[in-house]
Amino acid sequence: MEPLERKAQILGHAARLFGQSGYHDTSISDIIAAAGIARGTFYLYFENKRSIFEELLDGLLSQILGRISAVDASPDAPSPREQLIDNITRVIELFADERHMLEILFKGAVGLDREFDAKLQDFYEALVDEMIGSLDQGQVMGLVRPCDTRFAARIALGAFKEMLHERFYNPDREDEDPRKLAAEVLDIFCKGVLEDGVAIP
Amino acid sequence: MEPLERKAQILGHAARLFGQSGYHDTSISDIIAAAGIARGTFYLYFENKRSIFEELLDGLLSQILGRISAVDASPDAPSPREQLIDNITRVIELFADERHMLEILFKGAVGLDREFDAKLQDFYEALVDEMIGSLDQGQVMGLVRPCDTRFAARIALGAFKEMLHERFYNPDREDEDPRKLAAEVLDIFCKGVLEDGVAIP
Amino acid sequence: MEPLERKAQILGHAARLFGQSGYHDTSISDIIAAAGIARGTFYLYFENKRSIFEELLDGLLSQILGRISAVDASPDAPSPREQLIDNITRVIELFADERHMLEILFKGAVGLDREFDAKLQDFYEALVDEMIGSLDQGQVMGLVRPCDTRFAARIALGAFKEMLHERFYNPDREDEDPRKLAAEVLDIFCKGVLEDGVAIP
Amino acid sequence: MEPLERKAQILGHAARLFGQSGYHDTSISDIIAAAGIARGTFYLYFENKRSIFEELLDGLLSQILGRISAVDASPDAPSPREQLIDNITRVIELFADERHMLEILFKGAVGLDREFDAKLQDFYEALVDEMIGSLDQGQVMGLVRPCDTRFAARIALGAFKEMLHERFYNPDREDEDPRKLAAEVLDIFCKGVLEDGVAIP
DNA sequence: TATGAATGAGTCTTCATTCAT
DNA sequence: TATGAATGAAGACTCATTCAT
Lengths: 201, 201, 201, 201
Fold this sequence. Notes:
4 copies of one chain form a homotetramer.
Chain A: H1 3-21, H2 28-35, H3 39-45, H4 49-66, H5 80-97, H6 99-108, H7 114-140, H8 149-169, H9 178-191
Helix pairs in contact in A: 1-2, 1-4, 1-6, 5-6, 5-9, 7-8, 8-9
Chain C binds a DNA duplex (21 and 21 nucleotides) through helix 3.
């Protein structure tokens, strides 16, 4: 088999297994059995167990970033709101297509070791930074009310992650339109949950 | 040593180690070395490695729940807003006192196995249910605008978790007043980040 | 079993196996099978395969050094010649008692890795230094003819090693009196093989 | 590439690697990487790892033997002493030219397995037999004093090996004249280290 | 209640060798 | 001749758990 093809095949099986059972409960034996290859073949393509997981995670993080575009403010572009919703929708769709990846991101890669933790931190930090930029700009334009934008961005990240959770772990929502969820989470983050002009007593 | 005292002592060391190194990278050997006990003694107090971790996690989840009170609507009680902020503040303070517990909750217990995942799910689900109740009531009272309250509650949970993250993993915030953070996250969730009457174009 | 006893037992089996089959052809499985212990038990007493071999080699080198005494020049002591022969004899007897050790020293530990090589080098160097001292002193006393004493000492070492080889690998000599061999090698090193006053043409 | 040329090229790289890292720490991968050939190509020229090492060792032993000539007693020939020194010098020069070979002979091939051990034994035995012949003849001619000539020959071998060691592992001697060393070791073996007419007390 | 020696299933990893192309 | 993907037996090592004392 062609090296690239074989590597992709192994990665595919590994992704499924890591997603199903987590990093520690997936053994090299499991992977090679699923891929139908010999033990040595695995090590022809990956240095060790850690590295195949890392490759998987790196690929996932890149794919996510690849689905997020900076908002295009030119007149011909869709409205900013549309673009934001598009971004969120595309990420939801990514996980809809590769469900295992959600497990890997939300469970498998969490707390594995210091290096993986740092990798995730950095990834989330990059997302947050992106959002801080937009919020800061929004403040300048008078759209965003005065607040700690880093804090707000972090909250947006949490809202977004939990929206994914709701969509993918609540069976009632497994068919829900990604676009609708994207709009919903964006709305809550922008306008909050209270009626206009109302405050908690 | 008194059995209960000894058990508590072992739990303490285990909490620290699990928090520092995670479940898999903490061995029974590490725990007994830290506690200064013999291998067999450990198994006098805990059935196995899993069970000591479970005990730790259960204790943590109880403590969290114990710090959250339902909003008391009686006239003598503090305002609902105060009570909500109090709840959030108490949870922040819990983690400020026992930092390891945050690691255990956010990293150590994530993706460990199906059973632990379910336990965490149930815990978060309980929190969400609580919030749904409040939001539903808010809708009835005309405070909360029409929306999917389960979805909104989930978002609130995500916002809250990420606030904890921001507080405890961002060195710039390690001394920030828990009360202020509690108010801030509550505000964003209630009013959103946009200026009144404004919308994203 | 008492730890020290068990450790000694394992060391004994390992010595035999390393002596018979060499370092690489002796597996942990071989050792534990011979010792009748479980795999984990081995690692209770030795960090790894290398370390048990090292312990064996260190022990051997110490034993050798322990059987060599500096020549005592006091009037009550036996004659220097007797003392030198005693030293050599004791070393021959050591290997006669623990034949495996000879294999370990002459074959098993040779060329294993840089660290073991250095250990052996250092050991031989120490022996050579000892001999250099004696030869230098002999020169001062007019006993030893002018020559490069370091070179001569090295030659003495080679002569001694090959004498051991002859004694232990030539079946005709396996019962030969250690004392006689000691005297013989000492004589050749001191007087050479030529008749007095004769030279190679 | 011409088969013989290719084979020689592979042998050259293998010799260097075996000399540097020893038999076990040199992998087929190392050899083919150094030689710039494919894995399968290696097995076109050598049956297996053992056989390339054997070929190398056999070549080395032949070369050594090829540099040793029986002493020519005819009147036109150089003096016997000259011839002996010439023999020794040529062997020293061989190793000076191919240092790796020394490592292979003194470390790499030692204790590898029973068969290689036997091969080395046989080689040394042949050298010893040669020397026994000369010593016996010397005794007949009244040059060599009465002694066990096999034992003496063995000692000579040991002296010679250790001389090589001194020359090649002692940095102070790396430029020393081979001829001088040859004379020196021959002298010690012939006349010993003591002054004429002196004995150890 | 406490000890700690013993266990052995399970895991990752290496590497000489084969063989279809 | 040459290639290099594939093999799988064999190796070292870990660690949660048990149990006789």
